[in-house]
Automatic annotation (TrEMBL):
Pfam families: Pkinase. It is an enzyme of class 2 (transferase). Residues 1-115 form the Protein kinase domain. It catalyses: L-seryl-[protein] + ATP = O-phospho-L-seryl-[protein] + ADP + H(+); L-threonyl-[protein] + ATP = O-phospho-L-threonyl-[protein] + ADP + H(+). Its EC number is 2.7.11.1. GO terms for molecular function: ATP binding; protein serine/threonine kinase activity. This is non-specific serine/threonine protein kinase. Keywords: ATP-binding, Kinase, Nucleotide-binding, Serine/threonine-protein kinase, Transferase.
Amino acid sequence: MSEIASISNIRHENLVKLHGGCIDGSSKLLVYEYMENNSLAHILLVVGGEENRAMLSWKARREIAVGIGRALAYIHEEVKPHIVHRDIKLSNILLDQNFAPKVSDFGLSRLFFDS
């Protein structure tokens, strides 16, 4: 459960909050905060097509991009050891009730120590 080790102690407004996790035999479970608006992939690619894309103004899209950038800057520069996500994609960007982005799924992440 490398994801728990990677993000259990970090906090940022644009990172999904991990509430906990457990292992039961070969089953692993992570519990995150609930994201009312699903993922960016869901909004842009799955449900409603053009209608859903229209829900996101250019200002909202810019704010989503900036939020993702802030989250990545935080884990790359401020967290020690640094975390490299390695799997940024639309389905790993979750959206809260205000469409604020939350980077999720740190399963492929790697920790890097300053040398």
